[in-house]
């Protein structure tokens, strides 16, 4: 399962709720999973959340992705989705407990994320999920991450998804998730 931003919060929440259905989890610049938002991000986002008109959303995305090669078709699709469901009700639940995650986890962070402090998110993710693989793409912003560097992003995601499950997110393959998602030493078979 893979999710970006709010979608990452949904993906993590689902992976914790239905652990047997998720064998790997990828979170792209996740919001509300490991840390809160930067106050400035919320202030900049407020007009888009309150009155999501397509032109306003496009202008917002242009500011948030400045200096990156973000796909303009993706920006238009995002703006249409945001403005097309203007009467939607935002659902913001509690921050999940990522420490209970058993599935291998890849967290890709945008080094220029305006949504949160990527270093803080990385530190909290490492502490909560010691078996996680955490990568930062330093030149990308929060909204640029899904499309601005597709070769690099796809390479990291594909390598994680195709890796041996015992090594996908665990250091040196020495740990496997135990009860509650906490790592425990792997048992060795004896002949």
What's the structural blueprint in terms of helices and strands?
Elements: E1 2-4, H1 6-17, E2 25-28, H2 39-50, H3 54-64, H4 72-84, E3 105-110, H5 118-128, E4 133-137, H6 150-162, E5 175-177, E6 183-185
Keywords:
two-stranded antiparallel ribbon, disordered C terminus, 6 helices, alpha/beta, single chain, 13% strand, 6 strands, 191 residues, 4-stranded parallel sheet
What does this protein look like?
With 191 residues, this protein is an alpha/beta fold. The protein is built from six helices and six strands; from the N terminus they run E-H-E-H-H-H-E-H-E-H-E-E. The strands form two sheets. The chain has a four-stranded parallel β-sheet, sandwiched between helices. A two-stranded antiparallel ribbon has the order 5-6. The longest helix is centred in the middle third of the chain and has 13 residues.
Q: Which sheet architecture does the biggest sheet show?
A: 4 strands, parallel
Q: Strand order, biggest sheet?
A: 1-2-3-4
Write down the secondary-structure element order: EHEHHHEHEHEE
The percentage helix is: 25-40%
Q: Tell me, what's the shape? A: globular
Which class best fits the helix and strand makeup? alpha/beta
Distance between the termini: 37 Å
Low-confidence stretches: 170-191
Radius of gyration: 18 Å
- Work out the number of β strands: 6
* DSSP strand content: 5-15%
Give a quick summary of the entry.
It is built from 6 helices and 6 strands. With 191 residues, the protein is of the alpha/beta class.
